[in-house]
């Protein structure tokens, strides 16, 4: 029975500790949040993903749908030609 009593005492002390902690934390209005990925890094990652998706879309559109070579989307002459087609009146 002494083991059982010591377990009950340990449980009581844990409950008391939780109550004491909750009383101490009650005056605080907000918790400080530690982020795993900083906001500036999230912005860079999103910008990089947008750039990669645009390039992948151009590769599929120009290479597969347009019957061109995929590697040609990385040349300046291709983009100037595309811009001329877009701006053509």
From TrEMBL:
<keyword id="KW-0804">Transcription</keyword>
<feature type="compositionally biased region" description="Polar residues">
    <location>
        <begin position="1"/>
        <end position="10"/>
    </location>
</feature>
<protein>
    <submittedName>
        <fullName>DNA-directed RNA polymerase subunit beta</fullName>
    </submittedName>
</protein>
<dbReference type="InterPro" id="IPR024596">
    <property type="entry name" value="RNApol_su_b/EpuA"/>
</dbReference>
<keyword id="KW-0240">DNA-directed RNA polymerase</keyword>
<feature type="compositionally biased region" description="Basic and acidic residues">
    <location>
        <begin position="11"/>
        <end position="28"/>
    </location>
</feature>
<keyword id="KW-0812">Transmembrane</keyword>
<dbReference type="GO" id="GO:0000428">
    <property type="term" value="C:DNA-directed RNA polymerase complex"/>
</dbReference>
<keyword id="KW-1133">Transmembrane helix</keyword>
<dbReference type="Pfam" id="PF11772">
    <property type="entry name" value="EpuA"/>
</dbReference>
<feature type="transmembrane region" description="Helical">
    <location>
        <begin position="39"/>
        <end position="65"/>
    </location>
</feature>
<keyword id="KW-0472">Membrane</keyword>
<feature type="region of interest" description="Disordered">
    <location>
        <begin position="1"/>
        <end position="28"/>
    </location>
</feature>
